[in-house]
Every structure is written in C-alpha cells, then in structure tokens.
Amino acid sequence: MSRPKCGYCNQKAAKRYCPSLDKLICSFCCGTNRLKNISCDENCRFLDNETYHQQIHKEKELKALLENIPHSEHNDIFKSPNADNIAYAFESFFADCYIKGLFNLTDQKVKETLANLYDMKFREKSFEPDEFMELTLQVFDCLKDADEPMDLIGKVMLRIIISINKVTGGQFGPYGYLNFIKNNFHPNSKRNSDVFILETKNGKIITYQPT
User: Fold this and answer.
1) Which of 14, 45, 67, 181 has a beta carbon 3.0–4.6 Å from 95's, enabling a disulfide?
2) Which of 105, 129, 130 lies closest to 119, judged by CA?
3) In sequence order, what E strands does the chain have?
4) Within 10 Å of residue 100's Cβ, how many Cβ atoms?
5) d(Cα 3, Cα 1) in Å, to the nearest integer?
6) Mean pLDDT, 10 residues at a time, the chain of 211 residues
7) Using an 8 Å Cβ cutoff, are 160 and 166 in contact?
8) DSSP single-letter state for residue 65
9) Coil, strand, or helix at residue 32?
10) What is the CA 14 to chain-centroid distance, rounded?
11) Are the C-beta atoms of 168 and 22 separated by less than 8 Å?
C-alpha cells in the first residue's frame, strides 16, 4: 500500500504528522518550512529547540510592534484615509495566490512574509526573499510609487498581521485568514457588503455583521 501524498507539497510521500496543519507531510517540507511557513507546536518532536527559541524572540519583537497599532472597534488604523486601499492591494493579492494554489500558502507564511518585509523596509534588516516575498515586495513598491505614505503602508502591514492572529488556528485551522480574505476581499467574491464570511477548517460557513 502506497503512502499518502504530503499535505503540504502534494508530491512526496507523507511520513510525519504535523499537528499545526493537522495533516501528514513529508520530511522535506517539515524541515524547510518549520517555524517559517508553518506555526509549529512547541512540543513537536521534530522541532529544534534552539531554532524554536529564536522564533519566540522574533515573535516578542513583533508583538511589541503590534501593540502600537490601533485596532480597536473605535480606533482602528483601517479607518484611516487610504488605509483600506493599501490593505486591499495586499489582501487581494494574497487571496488570488491562495485561490490559484501558488506558493503553498498558509496563514503563517503570509504573516512571516509581511513581518520580514516590514523589517526590511522599516528596520533595515536583510532577508533572502523567496518568490512569494518578491511579489509581495512588488505590491509594496506599487503602493509607494502611487504616493501612499510609507508610514501608513507599514502600519497597515502590521494591522494585517493582527487580523491574521485573530482568525488563524483553533476552529479555523492554519488557513483561517486565507479563507477569510478569499471569501471577502478577492475580486470574485460575492459576499453581501453588510456581512463578513468566516470559514472553519471543516468548511462550515459563519457570517457576522460588523458593529
């Protein structure tokens, strides 16, 4: 009996259970994507302890940045002039890539890419971009060329990360945010403008009306 295919690349034979993705994946995808594109469980036996703690330190730095981004019901950076246009540029691109099955996207990969891009543009850190990050950088550059304020672009990027944190994991699984933008912000989505659509990892649709 042949092994099932990897739930991440859909090519190699799956040999390891990934609790974060709730799928069997191959050892190659596990090794190359852990803590980068997959938000790993601390107790996973395949996780390197030193690498995990480096990631925890990076998450703490990111958390400190996010604490300064307005995101409450009455004070949200998304309500600033032009912020919705900036967010739409990023999120419609992410949704389109997800729908087309490009780059093996997970919520974690989108979050990691936005965090790295922010660090590159606003904290003078260097990264070796993959193809997805290069295309996300093109979205950033298009917004900059359209004279959108750099400071606002950065704040919206961080605000999107807050959105990812809210709708990933748990009942929504590792694709909760991607399903959210697919159903609400892709040009082909057909949602009622008065409600938002959430999708659980089991495919159940939940609608809610913002206050």
Assistant:
1) 181
2) 129
3) 16-18, 23-25, 196-199, 205-208
4) 9
5) 7
6) 84 89 90 85 78 80 94 90 94 96 95 96 91 97 96 97 94 94 84 80 84 59
7) no
8) H
9) helix
10) 24
11) no
What does each C-alpha distance from 97 to 81, 83, 188, 201, 206 come to in angstroms?
A: 27, 22, 13, 19, 23
For residue 211, the model assigns a pLDDT of 59
Total-model pTM: 0.83
DSSP letters for 104-157: T--HHHHHHHHHHHHHHHHS-------HHHHHHHHHHHHHHHTT--HHHHHHHH
Residue 8 corresponds to which tokens in the numbers above?
A: 């991440």
Integer-rounded Cα Rg, in Å, for the chain is 17
- Characterize the bridge pairing of strands 205-208 and 196-199: antiparallel
Decide if 183 contacts 197 (C-beta within 8 A).
yes
Three-class SS of residue 169? coil
The tokens of 31 are what? 């090794």
Q: Which two tokens stand for residue 168?
A: 């990933």
Q: How many CB atoms lie within 10 A of CB 128?
A: 6
Tokens of 119: 């660090």
